[in-house]
Input
Amino acid sequence: MSLFRERARGWAFALGLSIACAPAAAPLRAQDSTAASATPAHSLPPMEIKAFVQVWYRTGDPLTKDGFKIRKADLKFQGDLSPLIHWRISVDAAKTLSVSTTSERISDTAALSSAAVDQKSRMLQEAAVTYTPNKRFSIDVGQQLVPLTIEGWIPLSNLETIERANFISEKSRAVGLGYVYDLGATANGTTPVGIEYHAGVFNEMGDDQNSTDANDQKALMGRLDYHIPLAPGLQVGTSGGYEPGPFTQRKQRFGTDAQYKNDALTLRAETMAGRDGALRRFGWYGLGALRVTPDLQLVTRYDSWDRDRTGESTLNNAFERQILLGGTYSIEGTTGKVALNIIHQSFPNISSVRDATFALMAFQAAF
Output
């Protein structure tokens, strides 16, 4: 009986001690739980998401039906894998798939021999990894913008006009001469004396976006700009590229550029010549933009474009001129913009096509 009483007293003491210690133990358990949830075992690296949407309305152009068009629906994901290694992926959901076809002659009739999706029309734009050992130098590997022209590197959300110059935006003959993506590797950097450089090797000059190279030759491209230290905002430069191989495959690019830019004024001019086998192309433009108020910017541009210097018989090879007047109004800073461009278009060497003046309006938002 005494043994039973001793055990009962021990159990009662242990129970009382547990009850007394419970309030103190609860905060400790809560603290441990909070700490565990704040530092998960497999946390994802930080990621940034950007988006840009631009909707057009075009009217008055005899070569295009009036109507709305989703010009851009960009999504960009980017992040850091480490202090030195970064990544980015971007897609344009507004792209429309197109088909590339080839044909062959059977007797006296052209017959379709093959058809495949044009890889350049797929949504994927950028998919690259960047290594940045210091602030003045970086290496990009993957699909990226090729280093041609100044305007080709200006994001559409920051462009003074609704559409880029014709030698960049018009792609009915071969590939555009700027703002094109391809797979490759580039070295990018700046020097203390004001030189900015971009040099790389690519599969092609925009022909093989989203696909592997169709030949063994590689395209070399580069851009060099000098930011003049004694004249802040002023830069001059050049860009170009070369791909060897058989005559029909051989490509060359050569351009020049100059720009002056400050908070109120932008003056820019570029030239670009291209050779794709037997095809010869040349374009240039001069642009001036004045920021009247923090929200209102006025712009004018003269644009000259010869898409085929060896032919002048149809719209596909005709020389074209455009004179643009317009403006952009920002809504809530850089979040939203509305723009209006009035464009006078002429094909002076094609008598069957009359001069025309049309309007291009854009509504865009970015975050």
Observations:
- The helical segments are 2-38, 166-169.
- The chain is about 10% helix and 50% strand.
- Confidence is low (pLDDT under 50) at residues 1-8, 10-41.
